[in-house]
Specification:
The protein is α+β, with helices and mostly antiparallel strands. Helices cover 21% and strands 22% of the residues. The protein has 3 helices and 6 strands. InterPro entries: QRL_CxxC_CxxC (IPR048142).
Length: 120
């Protein structure tokens, strides 16, 4: 397992740090989201690489926390659109009933409609 340390960016083109060893002030998208922030259009400030067995390394891009912007609040229109979209994913196209779960794409309908005899 190799240590992926390139703080100047000479090897990878952007500053690169080993997994879990990113400097303070840099965060991944998920870490920014946990802080209530978003990258806000800024360029990637670096990356952390995690070596994997028999595969290429797993990369997580880093963004500067001081340049991050707050997450946009959920508007009533956006909330209504999400409710409508989720309802459409749960509605069976055959019986037109809310299945109570997301309809499997492999079936294209709720389980009772796909297997009316009761045995899948």
């Amino acid at each position: 397992m190799t240590l992926c340390l390139d703080p100047t960016g000479a090897r990878y083109g952007i500053p690169t740090f080993p997994w879990r060893l990113a400097p303070d002030g840099l965060a991944t998208r998920r870490q920014l989201r946990a802080l209530g922030l978003r990258p806000g259009g800024q360029d990637i400030a670096g990356q952390v690489l995690r070596p994997r067995y028999r595969r290429g390394p797993l990369a997580a891009f880093l963004y500067r926390v001081d340049r991050a912007k707050p997450v946009r609040p959920m508007t009533p229109a956006k909330q209504a659109a999400l409710v409508k979209a989720n309802a459409a994913r749960r509605t069976c196209p055959v019986c037109r009933l809310d299945a109570g779960y997301v309809i499997p794409a492999s079936l294209g309908m709720c389980v009772p409609c796909a297997y009316p005899e009761g045995n899948p």
